[in-house]
Amino acid sequence: MPAPANQPTEVADPRRSRTLLVRILLATWLIGVVAAYLAINVGMADPASADSTFTGLWPLNHPYWFNPLIALVAIVPALILGLKVGRAFGLRTRPGSAAAAFAAGIIAWSIGNLVWFWYNTCTSWGALGCAHTIEAPYPSAADVGFIGLLPCYAFAMVQLSRMLATTWGDVLRLAWIPVLAFAGTAFLMVPDFTVLGVHVPAQSLLFDEGYSATQTSFSVLYIVSDAVLLSMAVINLVRARQAAGGIFFRAVLLTAVALLLQYFGDLLFDVRVANGSEYAGDIADFIYFWALFVMVLGIYVLGRAHERLQAHVSSMSAAMSLALTADRGEPVAAAAGGDTP
Fold it and tell me: Which of 240, 251, 237 is CA-nearest to residue 305?
């Protein structure tokens, strides 16, 4: 039976279909990475020894494929959501530029991870075409992408601080957060020393004894930058409870969790490289995945906050319009599109 002429027909919203696509992609990515991690670390007796058995496309469950699984898939939702949320707010606005910057940081890190995959596999896979004597250097071209994440995230955190109207008073009141972060980080870097006749053994778990000054500087740069970003995230999180009725709290919480995971990922990676236990698809790589995944969720939730904010503004505008109409003596029901007796 056809709908009455005066009854509006439902029109499919393209935004809903895109949102559904992103949700399916994120769920598939999560399941795929968790399954790959279990296959490597539970299904293989000695995954670290498998590094030397990589011969190309097959087998697809080789540990080396874990990095592209993280990186290639991360680029897609980051790009889609970064543009979608950035445009929704406006790329020149603080939340819009923050969303775009977070997405740019994810993409930069993912490109670095793909370059790292090339360094580790091009000697055993002829299709990648490099000399069989090449060794994965540190630092390398991959670090351009890894370091590229840092200024992108820093810019995003500053924009969130401005959006939340974070003041220097907030920073000073919460100064214990960066102090604690830097104290814990510094403890992991201190060399062997003696104070007042008491010997304190080295805690420099992050560095190999053979590291050059450049290699040590890069390791310090990553960890210290992570500590700075994490401190900014926690300060923003405290502020987000009060700003705009807390509408951005969940998004800011997810960015803080993502930065905490990034911090632990960098710590574990440096520790495992220094003691020789690092391999593709290990716990450090798994934590890196979670850092990217949670940050993508943060961008998504920031977009949802925009939708709620728009709905709130629309309802407020409608209420004000009805109030003004009533003040002019017009029937409120007629102004709202209804019938009057």
Answer: 251
In DSSP notation, 133-164 reads T----SS-THHHHHHHHHHHHHHHHHHHHHHT
Query: What is the C-alpha radius of gyration for the chain, rounded to an integer number of angstroms?
Result: 25
CA-to-CA distance for 157 and 151, rounded, in angstroms? Answer: 10
Rounded Cα–Cα distance for residues 289 and 182 (Å):
24
- Is residue 188 pLDDT above 70, yes or no? no
Q: Are 281 and 275 in contact (CB under 8 A)?
A: no
CA dihedral 183, 185, 189, 192 (to 10 degrees): 30
If phi over 0 gives left and psi between -120 and 50 gives alpha, with beta otherwise, what is residue 167? beta
* Predicted local confidence at residue 158, as pLDDT: 94
pTM to 2 decimals?
0.81
| Residue 325: predicted pLDDT | 59
Domain positions in the chain: 21-45+56-317
The pLDDT of residue 284: 93
Q: What is the reported pLDDT for 175?
A: 74
**Under a CB-based contact definition with an 8 Å cutoff, are residues 291 and 258 in contact?**
yes
